[in-house]
Amino acid sequence: MSRLTTPTPWTPLSDTAWAALRPHLPPLAPQGRRTPDPRARLDAIFHLAHAPGAAWKDLAPQHGRPDTVARFFRRLFHAGFWHRLLKLLAKAPPGHPLRAIEYSICRAARRAARLGGLPLLMLIRRLGLRSALDAPPWLLPDPLLSETLRRHPLNHRTPAETLRTLARLARDAAGRARIPRSVRLGWA
């Protein structure tokens, strides 16, 4: 099952959403230091994720230093937080508090996909969270050719049809070398 989340404007994390996120945060204190306010940093991450194409330097001053928030984001990624959060979101029933911030999570996962590369894209595709993809699924690599092969069987009558199907499979497996910015920004 695949779902495309309805875009919602950014709002600060509610107490309910924070209570749902907090148990899944990893212990991120480097060298014994505590993160001063992880809720405010997650708010900053979600706020920036809602702005298409925004860089860390574009973060509003009230959210803290951009390099600090970016470092927190990377630590969350390397601790597997975004992977866990996407898996929880995919299993969450409609009334679950994580579903209230699904669009924010998907937008942040798009940014995490820059760090996670193909393994994270594969997870997102497998979970069916299309809003977390940076482009339409058919433009991204598809290393699971078994699914594609099922859609395009190789039992053609002519060698030319078979070659066209093989070329389509190779294109689907590799994805597009370059995804136009207009498609990336307009997708979901």
UniProtKB/TrEMBL annotation:
<feature type="domain" description="Insertion element IS402-like">
    <location>
        <begin position="13"/>
        <end position="85"/>
    </location>
</feature>
<dbReference type="InterPro" id="IPR025161">
    <property type="entry name" value="IS402-like_dom"/>
</dbReference>
<protein>
    <submittedName>
        <fullName>Transposase</fullName>
    </submittedName>
</protein>
<dbReference type="Pfam" id="PF13340">
    <property type="entry name" value="DUF4096"/>
</dbReference>
<dbReference type="InterPro" id="IPR052909">
    <property type="entry name" value="Transposase_6_like"/>
</dbReference>
